[in-house]
Design brief:
Layout lengths: L2 H14 L3 E6 L2 E6 L3 H14 L4 E3 L2 H16 L4 E3 L2 E5 L4 E2 H5 L6 H20 L12 E4 L4 E4 L4 E3 L5 H17 L7 H12 L2 H10 L8 H7 L4 H14 L2
Antiparallel strand pairs: 1-2, 2-5, 3-9, 4-5, 6-7, 7-8
The chain binds adenosine-5'-diphosphate (ADP) and magnesium ion (MG).
């Protein structure tokens, strides 16, 4: 098996290790972690370090703090905690991943949904935050209201990474999780659109460097977020290169 294939298989395994659940109850989202979550999170620390992921899953108390702070700063909303369960306000719309998986979605609407999510990521970054798991599954897009909101703040970037690195990592996660759900003939156009809306040459350059080669330690982690084929992965690398002369 190739290194890429091995990383994809490892990525699938990593993705299956779920430790929290969210449910809608009485107009609030209740999110709680399984009893074995501390064990999995503890195990993830050395693994992510070996894989040079540059991210960390927060322990329960830090996680509560971060969700509270972000819902307050971004939505002026409060987050309750009852016996370790987080009680979150319901964000309107559907996740970007759900939008993109709708086979009947018309092209202009698809692009608008992506635009909203990318613009929301750029403004999240401008506010001084980074997400550390910025997948299309973690942004709610409300096309009627014309807005998008990021959520699921269980992970943080390592503090020793530069801001450009962290932003590029978020943009990478959003890019690959969108392109995973994009028809082949629309990949190039969608990639360009995402970079145009985000609009940061330095971050784009950083992002492109990350796709230079598949011989990278975090590949399994990245493929856990989006199980791209080798062909699609290389195509993304080529398209990114075209953007950075
Ligand atoms: N504040 C929210 N408003 C609306 N739906 C939410 C909210 N938080 C979570 N969800 C729903 O629950 C799902 C899982 O939530 P998430 O926080 O991403 O958990 P996980 O850690 O399992 O990825 C989301 O895809 C979304 O559909
Ligand atoms: Mg999530």
């Amino acid at each position: 098996m190739t290194y890429f294939g091995l990383c994809r298989a490892a990525g699938r395994l990593l993705r299956s290790a779920r430790y929290s659940r969210s449910r809608l109850v009485d107009d609030r989202v209740r999110k709680h972690r399984a009893f074995y979550a501390p064990l999995l999170i503890g195990l993830s620390v050395p693994l992510v370090r070996i894989l040079d992921g540059g991210v960390r899953v927060l322990h329960q108390r830090e996680w509560e703090e971060r969700e509270r702070r972000l819902y307050h700063d971004l939505h002026d909303a409060s987050v309750g905690v009852v016996n370790g369960t987080l009680i979150l306000p319901v964000l309107p719309g559907k996740s970007l991943a759900t939008w993109l998986e709708d086979p009947d979605l018309e092209e202009p609407v698809r692009m608008r949904a992506i635009d909203r999510a990318v613009a929301a990521l750029a403004s999240f970054h401008r506010a001084g935050f980074t997400h550390a798991d910025a997948m299309a599954e973690n942004v709610m897009v409300d096309l009627e209201g014309g807005a998008a909101e990021w959520f699921d703040f269980e992970t943080v970037h390592d503090e020793d990474r530069t801001m450009t690195w962290r932003r590029a990592d978020d943009l990478r996660a959003l890019l690959v999780t969108c392109l995973l759900r994009t028809a082949r003939e629309r990949v190039a156009e969608t990639l360009r659109r995402i970079l145009d809306v985000y609009h940061d040459a330095e971050v784009t350059r950083h992002l492109a460097e990350g796709f230079d080669s598949v011989w990278r330690r975090p590949l399994a982690l990245h493929l856990a977020q989006a199980a791209l084929t080798h062909e699609r992965y290389r195509e993304i690398g080529r398209l990114l290169k075209e953007r950075v002369p």
